[in-house]
Amino acid sequence: MVRRNADNSFKIKSYLTIIKAPKTIGAFFIISVRFSSIISKGLKMKKIDSILIQKVQSKDVLKLQKIAKETFFNTYVAENTKEDMDAYLAENFNTELLQRSIINPDSFFYFALNKKEIIGYLKVNRGTAQTDTKLPDAVEIERIYVVSGLQRKGVGKLLLNKAIEKAQSLKIKTLWLSVWEKNKKAIAFYKKQGFTAFDNQFYWVGTDKQIDVLMKLELDF
User: Which contiguous run of DSSP H or E holds residue 211?
Assistant: First the structure.
């Protein structure tokens, strides 16, 4: 499964003028996402001037790799050993794997841009691209991260709404995600957005076996 850090209000464990994201309209989604309540110490809060959500292309693979490694590392470095972190980053964020994922017709990546600077990203999957098949006819949010210093600015919520929009465009009514069981803030955030827990699963970071809570959302459209 996956880890993410969307917002300080919903950060996953696995990194615009502020635009208010549209409220979700009931359809059923599943999101596989991990959060962490960690914010890197000593980092100044960045200013958000304008936000653009942009689809990731094959030519962007190195940019994707950079934001993926940076956000995951900053989110989990305090909770995992260097060996486990190095192993996870090498296995999950190598260029070959990312390139295959980008060109997979059932996976969709998006950058959140602030004045052309990448400040977050989103990955959603459908069909066989999902990391779990408990809900085969669903959309999974595998990763959703925001860079340190921009939590609680609405970027994560904007990316979440992009995932919902994508599921609606695919005529899929189930969205799901996975959240680290110890990330109470993330779980509370998703509950506030209408998600409900439906199962648990193991999640490995290197040699460290952890437990995720699976949550899903039903959409109306």
Answer: strand 208-218
Look at residue 157 and tell me if it is in a domain. Answer: yes
The H-or-E segment that residue 113 falls in is strand 107-114
pTM here is: 0.79
The answer to whether 200 touches 213, Cβ cutoff 8 Å, is yes
Is residue 18 in a domain?
Answer: no
The C-alpha atoms of residue 114 and residue 54 are separated, in whole angstroms, by: 11
The yes-or-no verdict on residue 18 having pLDDT over 80 is no
pLDDT at position 36 over 80:
no
State the pLDDT at residue 50. Answer: 84
- 86 lies in some domain: yes
The CATH number assigned to the domain holding 126 equals 3.40.630.30
- Is-contact 21 6, C-beta < 8 A? no
Q: Give the number of domains in the chain.
A: 1
Q: Which residues are catalytic?
A: 190
